[in-house]
Batch of 2 targets.
Target 1
Amino acid sequence: MPVERTEHRGAEELHRDYQVYETIGSGGFAKVKLGRHILSGEKVAIKIMNKKDLGDDLPRVKVEIEAMKNLSHQHVCRLYQVIETSTQIFMVLEYCPGGELFDYIIAKDRLSEEETRVFFRQIVSAMAYVHSQGYAHRDLKPENLLIDEDHNLKLIDFGLCAKPKGGLGYELMTCCGSPAYAAPELIQGKAYIGSEADVWSMGVLLFALLCGYLPFDDDNCMVLYRKITRGKYDNPQWLSPGSVLLLNQMMQVDPKRRITVRQLLDHPWAIKDYNSPVEWRTRQPLGHIDEDCITEMAVNMKRSRGSTTALVKEWRYDQTTATYLLLLSKKKRGKPVRLRPEPTVCEDSCSPLHQGLQAREALHFSEDEDAVIVGSLDFGSDYIDDCPCTQVKQYTPKGVRGQPDGAANHKDARPAEKRYAYSPTPERGRTPAQHRQDRRNRDQERACENKENKENKENKENIAVQEKDVEIFALPPPRTPVSSKKSARPNKNVLTTPNQNAHVNGTKTKAATPKAGGSASKEHIKKRAAEFKDLADVEILAFSPERRSRSLDMAVTEDSGKKKKRGGNVFGSLERGLDKMITMLTPSKRRDGPRKIKAQYNVTLTSQTNPDQILNQILSILPEKNVDFTQKGYTLKCRTWGDFGKVTMAFELEVCMLQRPEVVGIRRQRLKGDAWVYKHLVEDILSSSSI
Ligand code: H91
């Protein structure tokens, strides 16, 4: 097949099945974007790799994909779908909004023994399972453990994992992983047993959790290796005797004297306060097929349950696998086992493929990534649980469903043709099939309307906003919150204001300027917004660099600082959002100050109240630390360079205002590079800036 053709089809497949949003991180040669699986409405992480960039590392990606296809466990990040084109590989993965365990540890300095135990049991569980499947991970570190929405750990990055042909007892030779976590036998280049080396890394990880720093550390690799091979480290005084003993059992230089994962399962330290061994068996065996998920898929695909089951059982890691696994994940979290209905009529313009294309059109990524400006209707993935008359699940905009008295539909003043929620009075006598058809029709209607409203323009600067850029589409860009606490989710009607041309300390920053015509007609926007205002709660998002950095920020929730009183809608009123959008579009009304945020774990508090002073201090210290940066308003995109002109580290520092206490904060976000080197560098910058 010609190159362009596979390329086109692969990308088409991705955009047909997913809405793709901003970059949320990067690892090696991969870029990870936030996405939403259109059919299930579920958020996903999309790992994107360019084959050319991968070069000799391509086999590692294949290893990772094969391993992840075989691993299904509550503490292992789930692979849903793989799309390969002639130039790229997309891995669709379980989304973990809590980010890396590493960031969690450094934000807390160190964890208590109790909290460490919760995490450690999960790590032991994951590793016992991975080993039971014949794999060694070989790159265990807190950066490779992500926190999901329930604050549970998920193991990632199986690119270095090994499955010796004769089983895990067979020795391996490749030296890999991060030096600080590598077992002595591994760095000495000896043959080693993968599972034994993993236990050493788990010991280093346990130390990092309890202490907030590494047991073996040095800038000089040779010195570091010597420390590791000697196996001597200091136990800080806050460690309990039990912790000291366990660490010692795990970090034994002689692998034969090292404790095994099996022994860790019911180790006295691990079972303290639990009185039960670690549960390591999978709660989600690959062979098991869930009937509810099959039924929903069968209805959606208009196939028999038998043939749907057969299709799912092929485990091709295509759209079928992803849909099944995402439905299963919804069910596990107590959400309705429902898919967005596929439209049946108007096949040309409203087919899933077409919708996918729409989604793609809706998000024009600039060279690097982000889209322009997006307004979206949040039809979310929630449905009215049961239709009172027919017991069929129904689909309704979230805003309507949110009414406590269930009378939302009665208040719906929209013209009938614009109404997507079910009609006010329960339609007695409508069959489940008719209801499903209604659902499809509404969906299709919505898709058509979305198309009508779509005129997004690509903008390399990311933030040029014009009237025609106002977008409406069926699924809201997922927020990238990341606090594990659901209550800490950001406001639903988020609207960000790019700090265009912000003047900081009298210097014009590098922020991009709006394209000509950047000030949108207020009336037009209001009219546009009014069209969808009453359909559902509305989310308007500017995919500007600022939005991106906010999204990257794992835990910052923006808060306008005003109490939301109007309208009683928990998500705030559209007008407010609209006003903000107009503010954003009107150059004269640009917001100049730093963002107001709530204190979160990646924000360092200062005792000062003047953001410009703090910004100046940081700006003056960065060159001293050999940190290259670009400034966008109060955000500094920082980079360090290695000897061969390669970026060794990338991170963001953003000066922002906290509300309680009202002081300046510095939000930090690592994008690339060694986590501990980053930690030390940022600490150094902040302490040198006398913050
Ligand atoms: N590190 C080793 O930055 C540096 C949020 C976020 C949310 C994710 C789900 C899966 C993956 C990453 C997520 C993620 C790499 C994932 C899974 C596998 C894998 C890779 C990523 C970073 C890359 C970005 C990650 C965190 C780890 C965020 N990330 N924000 N859900 O191989 Cl299996 Cl590279």
Target 2
Amino acid sequence: DDFADFQSRLSEHVNKRSGCLETECRMRAKNGEWTWWQVRGLITARDSENKPVRMLVMHRNISAARKVQSNLVTAKDQAESAMAVRGAFVANMSHEIRTPMNGIIGMIELALDTQLDPEQRNYLKIAKTSADALLTVVNDILDFSKIDAGKVELEPLEFSVRDVVLEAARVLAINAHKKTLELIVDVEADVPNLVSGDPTRLRQVILNLAGNAIKFTDRGEIVIRVSLDKTKPGSTELVFSVSDTGVGIPAESQSGIFEAFSQADVSTTRRFGGTGLGLAICSRLIELMQGRIWLKSEPGKGSVFSFAIPLASKQVAAQAQGDRSFAGKRALIVAGSQNLSSFLKKTLKGLGVECSQSSGIDEAHISIERTRALGFPYDFIIADYKIAGTSNEELTKRWCASGKPEMLIMMLTMENQREELKALRTLGVSTHLVKPFGESDLISALRLVADVDGTSNDKFELAEPSVDLDELAASEGLRVLLVEDNPVNQELAMRLLQKRNHSVFVANNGSEAVDLFEKMAF
Ligand code: ADP
């Protein structure tokens, strides 16, 4: 195989086109084994007609070096394909990993619902917390691998930005309210309601950023804002920002924060937990959505994570504009948070409602008394149930005692909703809003108390879940078709459903499910 090359190089040298012969080739040894040689030659004598008569040639056995080199190439190829295989493997494994985790967590929850002595309960609770923590880590790693292996594809859909942001905020509200943090969603009026993009990925990014904000904030508030990028006219770029009043991030840690496995401060991380993958996942997802992410933060003061993504929209005008049913009405806003006050004021103003605001309960009383004395009471009082830890009971009682001249809308957190709802109901508060709420929830509440549609009987039922499936099932069980191939999860789902009085029919695969579905009604 190497002979032709050898010959051509030799003739080049003979014809003086090269200063020396230099090549590498294989030769067969007596024992039949092929060996690699480096060959270097030089014509040392020519006759009178310039034909070469003597040549000095040096042969060097380079088999060992060649072998090392070829091993390296193979090793590199292998490593590269192993990396790709491993990435793809992890990305494909997610179902296999999450399924048993679901079994573990679900079974612990079931066990926690049984009769246990305090010691057993404590062990199980710790097991549950650990399993939850493990699931978070596993989810992060799987998500990251999936994105890294290029397995994440966007699914463009038409969706409502307001709904996606509010849903994400509601998921996190329980954690925020447990820490007595205020959580506010403020979508500006000029943000189009329907846009096209991938709502699941957008929700994931918001959950991640707002989840971090809650994790790294001990007191104060988290504000999720959405606005239209006004720097470019006609642009469909939406800017989302999540700001907190938490620990903040030192300048030197800010640049690398969007890289995988980076954490600003190892000591705080011990305290808060986490993998350092969340922001890397966010920034990759945003990149995938053709957007960008950035950060402003000051240690001790808080952080603002912002991202901008292009989201095409057919509809330019925002929702709910032109609702003038409340034009000329007057409202008093009693809120502990300046951001919440501004959000309410802006939204109410958009509806033509004139607003006053007070940030304390005493101040609110004065304002209410004064307007009443003038025979010109507010139409609405929209009040936080608790301000700086003090409850608004006094305000409610006085309002009741004076014959309820205003319509009182109480703003509750997820935390105090459960305990306080009954008390408020007894006192006859007009209605309530559970934070975080959006513009449309506020409008519904106003319409309800003002009885704009003339339909409301029980005003209090506004923010209650519409149909309580649990209650429905308690009287008569539902017939449920369960399609699940994993035996542990079958058992888990069956128990959960049976506990709620449902009768369960199990299909082990899609084909069985279709058969059952054709045989009976579920
Ligand atoms: P994780 O939270 O799992 O550690 P992330 O990638 O989400 O990973 O965040 C990386 C690091 O960035 C965190 O460990 C924390 O140090 C810092 N960080 C993120 N968000 C905030 C925030 N809102 N306030 C303060 N520090 C933050």
